[in-house]
Amino acid sequence: MSRIKEEDDRIDNKVYEHRVLRHLSQAQLAEAVGVSKQTILVMEKGNYSPSLMLAFRLADYFGIEITDLFTYRKGEK
Q1: What is the 3-state secondary structure (H, E, C) of the chain?
Q2: What are the sequence ranges of the domains in the chain?
Q3: Other CB atoms closer than 10 Å to residue 10's CB: what's the count?
Q4: Which fold has domain 13-71?
Q5: Is the pLDDT of residue 73 over 70?
Q6: What is the pLDDT of residues 29-55, one digit of tens each?
Q7: 39 HSE (CA, 13 A, CB side)
């Protein structure tokens, strides 16, 4: 039996899609949820997984469930 390595797990997000649908800039969204524009940028590119607190803040801001914004992918590269 092979074990799945944690580094093979990932979290996909739909932050970009929801931001664009609401005609927000990265800076506007960042200010609304209390992070830097750079944080939004790297999150949208898939290079950063937010803290649980930030994930909930984003979902709350967009008025959606956290699972509609973030998807956990176990053992996928």
Answers
A1: CCCCCHHHCEEEECHHHHHHHCCCCHHHHHHHHCCCHHHHHHHHCCCCCCCHHHHHHHHHHHCCCHHHHEEEECCCC
A2: 13-71
A3: 14
A4: 434 Repressor (Amino-terminal Domain) (1.10.260)
A5: yes
A6: 999 999 999 999 999 999 999 999 999
A7: 15
